[in-house]
Amino acid sequence: AALQALLKNPLADPFLLGTSGGAAAGAATAALLGASPLVSPAAAFVGAAAASVGVAALARRGGRLDLQRLLLAGLIANAFFSAMLLLVFSAASGEAARSMLFWMMGSLADATPSRIAALLPYAVLGGAALLGFASRLNLFAVGEENAAALGVNTEAAKRIVFLAASLLTGAAVAFAGVIGFVGLLVPHAVRSVAGNDQRTLLPASAL
What we know:
- The chain is 75% helix and 2% strand.
- The protein is mainly alpha-helical.
- Strands 1-2 form a two-stranded antiparallel sheet.
- Strand 1 (60-61) and strand 2 (64-65) form a beta hairpin.
- Helix 2 (19-32) packs parallel to helix 9 (154-176), helix 3 packs antiparallel against helix 9 and helix 6 (113-132) packs antiparallel against helix 9.
- It is globular, with a radius of gyration of 17 Å.
């Protein structure tokens, strides 16, 4: 929801921006190297963080985070990680490839209290950052230049919103795998009921 507001693009989601792909590539690579399943969440999170930093670096122009280039950089990252995943699958044994495939499909079967507790710090930190910028995201709807004219520090807002969304995505994908439709469809479903005010849309989408 935050990325759709920031980019003013109804098709924006963490998968499109390469964050989910980076997480999947990290976990698949760890599995290929024979790491314990307990390592997969950490490897996925590292992959998501690397993807986010790489996309942000590619999207910089003249010291600014260019939103159009951010989307293009995300598409490039997504294509790269898709190719990387195919390479990992081609090198994996049958059993390893099968386990990686099931992980990438995503599952809530391991939603135990301990895992929820492990996710809580990421959810609180990322969620608080996005909610703190909800009113500024509303102003992005009238355009970045207009938001700046209304007093929004657009560069800080872009960086924090993108990094907070990446943090939330990396943590979720690390524990539950890639469930791609959630990030794209949930905000639209909620928007049809709760409207487009980010102060309401963001917490409702989280729920």
